[in-house]
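Hi L., both proteins are below.
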Amino acid sequence: MTASRLMLDHVFDHEQNHPDRLYLTQPLGEGRVAEYTWSQTLDQSRRMAAHLHGLGLEPGARIAILSKNCAHFVMAELAIWMAGGTTVAIFPTETAETVRYVLEHSGASLLFVGKLDLWEHQAAGVPAGLPCIALPLAPPTQLDSWDAVTGRTQPLTGRPQRQPNDLAMIIYTSGSTGQPKGVMHSFERVTRASEGIVAKLHRDLGPQTRNRVLSYLPLAHVFERAWVECGSLVDGNTHLFFAEALDTFLQDLQRARPVTFISVPRLWLKFQQGVFAKMPEAKLDRLLRIPLLGRLVARKVLKGLGLDQVLLAASGSAPIPPALISWYRRLGLNLLEGYAMTEDFAYSFSSSTEHNAPGFVGVPLPGVQMRLSDEGEILIRSPGQMVGYYRRPDLDAECFTPDGFFRTGDRGELNAEGMLRLTGRVKELFKTAKGKYVAPAPIENRLNAHPMVELSLVSGVGQAAAYAVVLLAEHLRPLLHQAETRQQVQTELLRLLEEVNRNLADYEQVRMIVVAPEPWTIENGMLTPTMKIRRGRIEANFETELPRWYGSDAKIIWV
């Protein structure tokens, strides 16, 4: 890590040293794409920066971006930084209520409106009088457009500088447990963490490798922002591709042929279930055992997923079942798990070639310090550590130890090699009527490892025993009206329940499995924008049903 340079210094160097190197590829629909070199990217950003500078905004003015991932998200962020502002990115799936909260809480001076599916519902959340600029892929609006602004504005020249302690961005958490919190990150800490990420990628890929990455997880989330966007801004040798839409995802993957591919557990599971829908698990397992044929079959499976060029695959944002990691490694995909959070700019733990046991999230990245509290809580001090929570000094006092370690709220344990295993959330522990605490995450991981289960939730506060709600795999849900399929699913769930309970202490054992009656989605509020379950929302949905469930002898309950 180079202590003197900041993020914009890296960017200006790429503009100067590699002006014609392709940086961004944006699909436009019907197979068309727009491509931008470093020179073209910076020309666009400099023009918008000059416009923002001319508005006379206060130093550090918060400027928001509401958009799905696209090339102009990156350009807008660079423009904000060059103009002296602080970026506030809003998840593109947020409700109008949350959009308004973030804009008002951050004190945003301007909003970039980008590629969106829900703008007609979100527009009501934009405060009256707030200046807005529409990015090129925005829905039809009456707003001033990016192209119009950049077309009439001369580019900002030179190398506009920011100070190490200036705020680069405020990242609002996705709010899985309540109102979103604004996490402040300075240029110094964002740069140091991003340099560490690039060093990690260079170790795994080789420093001269031309990295190709498909950006599709929300850029408003720290995982994608740090490891994809900011990593590419530091590296300069990464080619970013963007996804067009959910329906075109496979084509987008085939276009990008990524070298590095980052995803979240739910999507890794859905990819696996998609494979099983085409080839039964038992048949695939049998073929993979045949020495020469197995390698050919594995290669074909990866090519079908668009992942046959991947040298480094990573999973983050939530725990991933160890069995799922092992399955991908059997296919020859180097799937590694990491552990980090918004508060350390996604820079804390990662698996490596030497430390990659399934079920563990690796070892501390260079510069990261970690220890366990007496209660088993993971405490971390990272080069990417946040400055604090925006306008919430009370939370700052709660979340840091006196010597500056961040209280993660996660419980963990270390093995003899210093690798970390997550054992649940401190606040997610619940006590049953037996008076014993139950950690839901390890039990959920065991349930989620079954190919029939997409997601699960374990709860049972104050009840005689825990219960589990499972969301069945997508390919199964349309078939449940068939009596034969339903009976097969019930039999398999009973077997799963017995298998899971066999490895649990008596006070942890799950009394019943409840089949979720509808999918859990971001749109219906059951998942966060990063596809983590919203425990409180799901538990509240079933609260009135608990007396009936516990009054029954059924082990499998269909709602």
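That was the first. Here is the second:
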Amino acid sequence: MSRINEETVREIRERNDIVEVISSYMPLRRSGANYQGLCPFHQEKSPSFNVNAPRQIFHCFGCGVGGNVFNFVMRMEGLTFPEAVKRLGEKAGITVEETPVTPADRQRRDQRERLYRINEAACAFYHRLLLEDAAGAAGRRYLRQRGYEAEIVRSFRLGFAPDQWEALVGHLASQGFAKEELRTAGLVREGSGGRGDRDLFHNRLLFPILDPEGRVVAFGGRVLDDGTPKYLNSPETPVYHKGRTLYGLYQGRDAIRHARAVLVVEGYFDLLALHRAGIANAVAACGTALTADHARLLKRYAEQAILVFDADKAGRQATFRAMDALLPEGMAVSAVGLAAGEDPDSFLTGQGTAAFQVRLAAARPALEVFLDEQLQIHGDRVEGRARAAEEVLTRIRRLPSDLERNLYLKQIAARTGLDEALLQGKGRGGAAPLPEQRTPVQARRVEPEAETRPQTFLLRLMLANDRARGQVREEGTAVLFSSPEHREVADYLLAAEDAEGRLPEVLLDDLHDDKVQALLSGLLLAEDQAEWAADPERIFADCRKAVAAVGQRQRLRELQELVGAAEQSGDFEAVGRYQLELVQIKKKL
């Protein structure tokens, strides 16, 4: 892959003052050594968002996000790191050059650019037909009947494919595009029986699908009569992947980011109806199930997903599939209940925005809705309640928050009458793991704050005391830090020292992981570094002892899970071995 020269990244960061950049998005006021403002990434009334000019970092002590100027722009604009570097490079007047690419890389890049141009030309052609041409009269009439006026049509660049087989082929050929390129773009199909290439779409209302940068990558087409299929979508191409693209994200991303919540709907008209009602923080899944890539994309903009799918069996299934994709990303997922036969478009048309807002306010956590469904499916007998609990436990294991898992386990116990202690064991994946669950050795454990606190103290000591960094280097970060994020920060600080063993004023370069950036930015903006590290020797010794105990307690939990798994499989020799180690660790603790 091509990459951006590190010197260029550093120059762009130095030429973009973080206070100036962030001030272009939100108001800041000076508060002591820092600047403060209301965090743009979560709702708050008192400012907890801090920006430090000397260190060129930001950190919110309310929601925990933090980083450098690149991280801020990435979060605000939903960009990747290279995209943020290029955006800030343009602002600073610096040309971003990537390392030389191979001829194959250059060919792929040129092909992608060509496909973007083809899609843009097709979009302009279809949009003009809908707005101005006699061939688009049926499309205009259909939209008026459904209550969509010019504003929505223009903002979403809706189009119309005429009832002809070669309208687009001829138009794009006249602009110099080759038929092979049009096939690659998924806009035409090769003719059969000696006929020429034919347009993919004809006699359909068209919905251009845009990527997060606003480039047209595909189309969805709806028939205006009883023809089939009702909806026809572009095939996958080098620039369009259904599992990574969400309809309406480009038009709604600012509203989503501001609300920190996104409504997820099924259809194109569902999304347009929401925008017409003034609800812009919404996306549609382009006729495909929500994927893990979709979830990661939405996580850039929002903390909460509200699922508003059709009120039928297929809609419920889509709701739970979307829930499965979103929960592992740590998003709060809720579901809106509509009456049978309703969808967001029909509901808004029939009952209005105020009634829809009432439904949004009554949205329930999707896992609760899933539990209701499973209890209804499996019945009220003991076996049925146990099976329903198993189905829900499968989802609970995907939650990254220990607290959230425990709350749901309590709710399952109350609803099913099953023993909470048994559910706790299963919810952690211990006594009876299901097939799709990862084993305790494979699973990456999320350590609670109480266990990482000593490691956080140790990192603060490393920032405040040069000698402490020497002690950490001597004993090894792998010994002193069990948390991967804390260990990465420790390694980074040791590598950042100059020849005299001192740290530079500006840190965070070369750290691109969000959690690691947030951890270090929070440490750097702590105000009491010098006073806190008044007795570094004692603090280091206490932290080392606490970290050792954390490791022993973690191994204790692993052994308890291994004992349960060994008992389940009948390996009693392993049970004895694990129990012996359990006794030894308990003595040490």
